[in-house]
Amino acid sequence: VGPPPRQGSTGHGLSTPTKSFHQAPMKILASQDHQPPAEGDTRAVALANDADALALPLAGMERVDLHFPNFTDGRAFSQAFLLRRRRGYQGEIRATGDVLIDQLVQMQRTGFSSAVLREGVDAADAQRQFDRFPAFYQGDAVNPQPHFVNDKAAV
């Protein structure tokens, strides 16, 4: 069977963050409400899609913008997951670019805390995505424990 998982491990080769992250409901922003990080701002950064999220200096960082150049490019999902799960990043992770409302739930599950909608997209339509999917059986970047573990703890 093998040795038991060591502290801080899921037993499947993934590390668990040292700090737990409580995800508030995803903040939805209209395109005109988003201000990209200013050049030289040490509290916010726009991380390029080909940048290594594990190498990003996070000390003092309040917001990381991850860009979706088009809806078929999912590298920002991986970057968000790495920032939350492996780095234990507690700040805001914002989705920018070609953000589609049918991807918002998955964005939140991989660690995004806010998303900037494309021009002309209704925020109420976006919010309905979360109403359609209130819970999940599997664990994710935000809630790593599967639903059945949480149910046993409540009993």
Explain what you see.
By secondary structure, this protein is of the alpha/beta class. It is built from four helices and five strands, in the order E-E-E-H-E-H-E-H-H. 24% of the residues lie in helices and 14% in strands. The protein has a five-stranded parallel sheet, with helices on one face. The model is unreliable at 1-22 (pLDDT under 50).
Descriptors for this entry?
single chain; 155 residues; alpha/beta; 5-stranded parallel sheet; 4 helices
Helix content: 10-25%
Number of strands: 5
Please indicate the percent range of residues in DSSP E strands (runs of 2 or more). 5-15%
Spatially, the strands of the biggest sheet line up as: 1-5-4-3-2
What sequence of helices (H) and strands (E) makes up the elements? Answer: EEEHEHEHH
